[in-house]
């Protein structure tokens, strides 16, 4: 285990996040001779897609599938490259001068970086239905994490609900692991096909086409699938039932575990707090950083690679990480030998080919993104959709003002689970665009740290003298 | 809600609210709670509603627990250690009673 005391006070390149983008970037930069450190919050590298790739107890490789195991090569490459990889490291601050605040093992350090690559990836899009805060309701990604990292498979009456490739992948992995799924509730709006169809030819050429069809066949053969327009988790102390309606009327199913998923969105907190400009992406219905062709952001020296740059999947994330790393190497060590960017860009383009189809097809319905009534929008401060809507109607123009009225976004998750919902609710009520409304202005620390951690920061003699009388 | 594929890896003994719970190497605190069938880990500060781990990837903060005396730790990010003392958390109103 690497401790805070083992860290240098500066590195040429600091990479934040040990998923495919971060691992690929670290391997490339370190091999080119750049002093590189990678900070990752989890106990092991892999990010979410390759979660626990070096330690998973799931021995049967068919369960998680070849695409998962492909991640092992990335982890190996990064490890062999000479990059310093620090797990259990929480980055809680990054500023425009590329000063990185990080905590390792309860001790904090401020690290200077010439270049920074933010590779903090994505998170699941909020899925604010009635009852989504009840114990027994989790995200599909959570169940997948438990399967990959701890070999935990769903038990009892299980329903998966939502849309998007991850939902079907988790269903297939669960079945292969011997788990049972009572039903899948498909929330994909039928009319999405109208837009998606235009992009079907591109998708048919992408690597995801055949994989997607095979997954659907595998799962549909074993699990009943219902098309639904409304959905509610019901229970008092925990979820007991899921109530849903579709063309066949209203139905109820008893559940022990309800797994929700409606796609993933960039995890913007760190980039936003560092002052990186973001823009609304209407196809992916989320904010994405404004980036150049090398994934450089609006803040000099800070790049955003991987799904944090806009959702494109794990393989694309690795290619993006390489492109960002090459830009960093060229800036730091102009004479270093780096791989051919053109070949990487071509591979990336191929990976991104089917994205428009997937995005349009799986675009969640308005009712599953912008709830009504007493449905909770902000989980931490328990603020309802109605409160947000009413406050917007009263004249509140944006999410930052909304904090002052309702405290939404001010709890421990710092808006991660309500940011998009609150922005879209305000936009809907004020009949304007999410881009116009904007997002929470985030500030460090973007992850909670204790006073003891802050107090553990090394202080120079000059700094000590500055406050002495 | 969850069962283990195989009871593999060395067992690790932790306590949850004083009760003995057997975890496995590779478990996070949140995973150990789920595997033990403990389906809530805190109550909320506003209404006192029960919450359980939701995202297991460090973004939702619903799995906050007290670990070895330090409150509001993210259970999904902390690996279990032998002898670890985990306590479920009460929301502010209940804690103030």
Structure description:
The complex is a heterodimer of chains A (469) and B (97). Chain A is α/β, with parallel strands linked by helices and 469 residues long. In chain A, 36% of the residues lie in helices and 22% in strands. Chain A contains 20 helices and 22 strands. In chain A, the strands form six sheets. In chain A, strands 1, 2, 3, 4, 5, 6 and 20 form a seven-stranded mixed beta sheet that branches. A five-stranded parallel beta sheet of chain A has the order 8-16-10-11-12. In chain A, strands 13-14-15 form a three-stranded antiparallel beta sheet, with no helix packed on it. In chain A, strand 21 and strand 22 form a beta hairpin. The mean pLDDT of chain A is 96. With 97 residues, chain B is mainly beta. Chain B has a single domain (11-95), classed as Roll (Ubiquitin-like (UB roll)). Chain B contains two helices and eight strands, in the order E-E-E-H-E-E-E-E-E-H. In chain B, the strands form two sheets. Chain B has a five-stranded mixed beta sheet, with helices on one face. Chain B has a two-stranded antiparallel sheet with strand order 4-5. The radius of gyration of chain B is 13 Å and the shape is globular. Chain A binds chain B through residues 41-43, 48, 52, 55, 57-58, 88, 90, 123-124, 133-139, 141-143, 145-146, 149-156, 177-178, 237-238, 256-257, 267, 379-382, 411-413, 416-417, 448, 450, and chain B through 1-6, 8-9, 24, 26-28, 31, 34-35, 39-40, 44, 46-47, 49-62, 64, 70, 72, 76-77, 79.
């Amino acid at each position: 285990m690497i401790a805070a005391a083992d860290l240098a006070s500066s590195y040429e390149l600091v990479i934040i996040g040990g998923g495919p983008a971060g691992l690929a970037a670290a391997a490339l930069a370190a091999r080119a001779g750049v002093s590189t450190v990678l900070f990752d919050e989890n106990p092991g590298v892999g990010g979410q897609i390759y979660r626990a790739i070096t330690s998973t107890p799931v021995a049967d490789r068919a369960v998680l599938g070849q695409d998962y195991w492909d991640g092992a090569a990335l982890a190996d490459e990064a490890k062999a490259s000479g990059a310093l990889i620090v797990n259990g490291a929480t980055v809680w601050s990054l500023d425009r001068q590329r000063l990185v605040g990080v905590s390792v093992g309860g001790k904090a350090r401020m690290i200077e970086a010439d270049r920074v690559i933010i590779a903090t990836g994505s998170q699941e899009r909020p899925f604010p239905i009635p009852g989504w805060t009840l114990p027994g309701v989790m995200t599909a990604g959570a169940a997948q994490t438990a399967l990959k990292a701890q070999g935990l498979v769903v038990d009892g009456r299980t329903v998966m609900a939502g849309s998007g490739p991850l939902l079907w992948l988790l269903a297939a992995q669960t079945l292969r692991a011997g788990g049972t799924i009572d039903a899948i509730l498909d929330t994909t709006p039928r009319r999405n096909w109208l837009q998606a169809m235009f992009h079907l030819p591109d998708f048919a050429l992408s690597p995801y086409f055949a994989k997607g069809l095979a997954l659907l066949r595998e799962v549909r053969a074993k699990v009943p699938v219902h098309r639904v327009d409304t959905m509610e988790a019901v229970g008092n102390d925990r979820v007991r039932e899921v109530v849903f309606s579709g063309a066949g009327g209203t139905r109820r199913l008893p559940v022990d575990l309800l797994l929700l998923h409606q796609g993933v969105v960039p995890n913007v907190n760190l980039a936003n707090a560092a002052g990186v400009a973001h823009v609304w992406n209407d196809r992916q219905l989320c904010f994405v950083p404004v980036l150049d062709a090398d994934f450089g952001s609006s803040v000099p020296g800070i790049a955003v690679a991987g799904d944090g740059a806009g959702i494109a999947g794990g393989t694309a994330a690795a290619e993006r990480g390489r492109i960002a790393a090459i830009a960093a190497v060229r800036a730091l060590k102009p004479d270093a030998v780096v791989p051919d960017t053109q070949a990487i860009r071509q591979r990336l383009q191929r990976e991104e080919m089917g994205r428009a189809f997937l995005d349009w097809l799986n675009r969640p319905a308005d009712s599953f993104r912008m709830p009504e009534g007493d449905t909770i929008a902000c989980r931490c401060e328990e603020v309802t959709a109605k409160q947000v809507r009413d406050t917007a109607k009263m004249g509140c123009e944006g999410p930052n003002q909304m904090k002052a009225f309702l405290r939404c976004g001010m709890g421990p998750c710092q808006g991660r689970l309500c940011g998009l919902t609150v922005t879209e609710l305000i936009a809907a009520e004020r009949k304007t665009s999410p881009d116009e409304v904007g997002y929470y202005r985030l500030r460090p620390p973007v992850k909670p740290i204790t006073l003891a951690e802050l107090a553990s920061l090394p202080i120079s003699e000059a700094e000590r003298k500055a406050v002495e009388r | 809600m969850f069962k283990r594929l195989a009871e593999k890896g060395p067992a690790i003994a932790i306590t949850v609210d004083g009760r003995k719970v057997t975890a496995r190497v590779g478990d996070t605190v949140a995973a150990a709670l789920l595997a033990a069938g403990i389906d809530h880990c805190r109550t909320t500060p506003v209404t006192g509603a029960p919450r359980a781990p939701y995202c297991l990837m460090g973004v939702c903060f619903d799995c906050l627990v007290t670990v070895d005396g330090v409150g509001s730790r993210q259970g999904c990010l902390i690996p279990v250690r032998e002898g670890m003392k985990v306590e479920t958390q009460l929301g502010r109103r209940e804690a103030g009673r």
